[in-house]
Amino acid sequence: MARKSEHDGLRLDEAARAGWLYYVAGNTQDEIARKLGISRQAAQRLVSLAISERLIKVRLDHPIARCMELAAALKLRYDLRFCEVAPTDPGSTSSTLGIAQVAAAEFERWLRRPEPAIIGIGTGRTMRAVADQLPAMECPQHKLVALVGTTKTDGSASFYDVIIRVSDSVRAPHYPMPLPVIARSVEERELLTNLASVRSLFGLVEQTDVSFVGVGAVGDSAALVQDGIITRQEAEALRQAGAVGEITGWAFDSAGKVLAEGTNQRVASAPLRRADNRLVIGVAMGPSRRAPIRGALAGRLISGLVTDEATAEHLLQR
């Protein structure tokens, strides 16, 4: 077992070296093969391994004119404080490709500020993808605060807990939310959210300088359903009540109004308020997120947006 582990470690070392030569030093795969004394096919496999194991994180630094035009139009149409648009890959089915890298770049800009900042962090697949793109840093001057809990009603934790992952990468003080996303009853929610420690945490959320959140759909394929946070029956009840999307567990309608019924009566996350005087950056893309993003923009639940070309074009159609 030890020998196998040692072999795997050496393999990753070779992959990291090949990835660096290709993406950072600008070598071709033929040049990498020659420098490492391996075949071109082996060099190609090592470069692919570097990407699959996330040893190399690639960002596009050159601005694309069409993306910049779309971002400017979205800022004007929806009175956004911040907007970035990533290129769309027509053949991809990913819900994070491109936008995770763009959002991570903005997150990193905040982290590199010398002035102390309080940064709110949502959870879910998109925010996990953003966290995976952050480089290792030392940011003791900032505070990272969770906007939502990560446990289910049975006490089990979600795989998409983001704040711990971010804190491990950037070495910043963090304030996780020790709560379920949805409490088992209204009474339990009242009990949990009135704890002194939780009220203090909610107060910190109100002081955030910037927050990064995913904007989710409400349906059978929604993350809340897939992750076991709510049932399909509860999701259907939310849709019947007019819900089109959710942010940090809070369902809202097409006008961006947070619903008063359904599972919203039991959400234990920090309250979802209008972002008039705060920078709340929604990170989302794809057909299933179009109605949720439009609703979040209409209700001013987000004041910033990171999305892709196709979604941006849809948002500008009417």
Mean pLDDT: 91
Oligomer designation? single chain
* Secondary-structure content class: alpha/beta
Strand content: 5-15%
With strands numbered from the N-terminus, the spatial order across the biggest sheet is: 1-10-9-5-2-3-4
The number of domains is 2
Query: What is the overall silhouette?
Result: globular
Give Rg in angstroms: 21 Å
Uncertain ranges = none
Q: Count of helices?
A: 13
**Which sheet architecture does the biggest sheet show?**
7 strands, parallel
Relative helix content: 40-55%
Q: How many E-type strands? A: 10
| Helix and strand element order | HHHHEHEHEHEHHEEHHEEEHEH
Q: Just give the CATH class of the largest domain.
A: Alpha Beta
Distance between the terminal alpha carbons, to the nearest Å?
60 Å
CATH topology assignment of the largest domain: Rossmann fold
Proper CATH architecture of the largest domain: 3-Layer(aba) Sandwich
Q: What features would you describe in this structure?
A:
The protein contains 13 helices and ten strands. It is an alpha/beta fold and 318 residues long. It folds into two domains: 2-52, Arc Repressor Mutant, subunit A (Orthogonal Bundle); 65-315, Rossmann fold (3-Layer(aba) Sandwich), CATH 3.40.50.1360. Strand 3 (143-146), helix 7 and strand 4 (174-175) form a beta-alpha-beta unit. The longest helix is centred in the N-terminal third of the chain and has 23 residues, at 2-24. The model has no long low-confidence stretch (mean pLDDT 91).
